[in-house]
Amino acid sequence: MPSNRIPDNIWNFISQQHVVAVTASAAGELWSACLFYAPHNKTQTLYVLTEETTRHARLMLENNIISGTIHNNTREAKQIQGIQFKGFITKLNDPEMFAAREYYQQQFRIASSLPPHPVWKITMTEIKFTDNTETFGSKYYWNPE
C-alpha cells in the first residue's frame, strides 16, 4: 500500500531549500511567482506569504490548483537537484493563519518587521525529484494515489 507521506529523500531536499516557483492559472491566464517558503515537517506542507492583490494570488483565489518547482542553485551538473510538483494552495484563515504566520516568522525573522501579508499553504499531490548527486539523471516519483 503506498504511503501518503512524501519519501524522506524528497522531503529532506525540500526542507533544505527556501524558494519555490509556483504557477497559477485561471480563465485562460497563466502566471508564475517565486516565493520564500517555510516547510512544515509534520504536515509536509509549505507556508508562503503573498498579497491577494498580486497577479498570481488573484489567479490562485480563482483556481487553487498549482504547479511548481524547487531546485538548488549550482553550476555543476552532478550536483543538480530539484523537484517539479503539482498541488493546491489555500489561503489560510484564523486560527490556522496565526499559527502558520508565527511558524513562518521563526524561519524568516525579517517577516516579523513587515506588514502582515496573507499566509497560504501549499499541499503537494504529485512530485518528480531529480537527483544528480546519486547518479546522473536519477529520478524519484511520489504520487499517493
| CATH fold naming | Pnp Oxidase, Chain A
E-strand count: 7
How many H/I helices? 3
Q: What overall geometry do the principal axes of the alpha carbons give? A: globular
Q: How many domains, in number, for the residues?
A: 1
Beta content: 35-45%
SSE string: HEEEHEEHEE
Record the strand order, biggest sheet: 1-2-3-6-5-4
* Mean pLDDT rating: 95
- How far apart, in Å, are the first and last alpha carbons? 10 Å
Helical residue percent band: 10-25%
- Spatial extent as radius of gyration: 15 Å
The low-pLDDT segments are none
- CATH superfamily heading: Electron Transport, Fmn-binding Protein, Chain A
Question: How does this structure look, described?
Answer:
The protein has one domain (8-142): Electron Transport, Fmn-binding Protein, Chain A (Pnp Oxidase, Chain A, Roll), CATH 2.30.110. A six-stranded antiparallel barrel has the order 1-2-3-6-5-4. The longest helix is centred in the C-terminal third of the chain and has 12 residues, at 96-107. The radius of gyration is 15 Å and the shape is globular. Helices cover 20% and strands 41% of the residues. The chain contains three helices and seven strands, in the order H-E-E-E-H-E-E-H-E-E. The protein has helices at residues 8-16, 55-62, 96-107, and strands at 19-26, 29-40, 45-49, 65-71, 81-91, 119-131, 139-142. It is α+β, with helices and mostly antiparallel strands and 145 residues long.
